[in-house]
Design brief:
- By secondary structure, the protein is α+β, with helices and mostly antiparallel strands.
- Helix content is 44%, strand content 24%.
- It has a seven-stranded mixed β-sheet with strand order 2-3-4-5-6-1-7, with helices on one face.
- Helix 2 (88-111) runs antiparallel to helix 3.
């Protein structure tokens, strides 16, 4: 997971307002301005924003975490594009793929080439192939969307990308 650091001249209130304008807020009694285009769904607080991409217009990462760090007009954004909202789904896919691969290995270890005539092979092999192709395509789409997400947030907040070393250490603390 790659984290990007952006520096902007906008104040914290202006940054939060920009994200709130373009986010379909999920908080109870939140005011969603119907006159602005919505790119995200999620929550925006004074310290961070947890966003899901809901637009087809731009190829954005499915999930984005933005931390607002800094004071007054010396603001930094810590942007982390994510492929999944949490680690449960990829962990489940990896465990299922690993188990299928192990069962195929055991099938060939015991039955050698006669395993090709067994039903277990013709059930496990296509499932494993399908999961491998699915995970590869998702990974490729995500790697393309990371740069688009960075460009989008950079133009939205009028920010420039900086190195982690350029961000004052006090702003990196939680």
């Amino acid at each position: 997971m790659r984290t990007y650091y952006l520096k902007t001249k906008l104040t914290r209130a202006a940054l939060i307002e920009k994200f709130r304008q373009h986010t379909l807020l999920e908080i109870k009694h939140a005011y969603n301005n119907p006159h602005t285009e919505k790119f995200f769904s999620g929550t925006v607080s004074d310290e961070e924003a947890w966003l899901s991409s809901i637009t087809v217009k731009y190829r954005l990462s499915p999930y984005i975490q933005v931390l607002f760090r800094g004071i007054e007009e010396d603001m930094y954004l810590v942007l982390t594009p994510r492929m999944y909202s949490n680690a449960a789904f990829p962990l489940l896919l990896s465990l299922f793929s690993g188990t299928s691969l192990y069962l195929l290995y055991r099938l060939f270890a015991v039955w050698k080439w006669q395993a090709l005539n067994m039903m277990e092979f013709w059930v496990l092999a296509p499932v494993l192939l399908f999961l491998s192709v699915f995970m590869l395509l998702r990974r490729l789409a995500f790697s393309k969307s990371k740069e688009c997400t960075l460009d989008f947030v950079r133009t939205l907040c009028d920010a420039e990308v900086v190195k982690k070393e350029d961000v004052p250490g006090v702003f990196l603390l939680r």
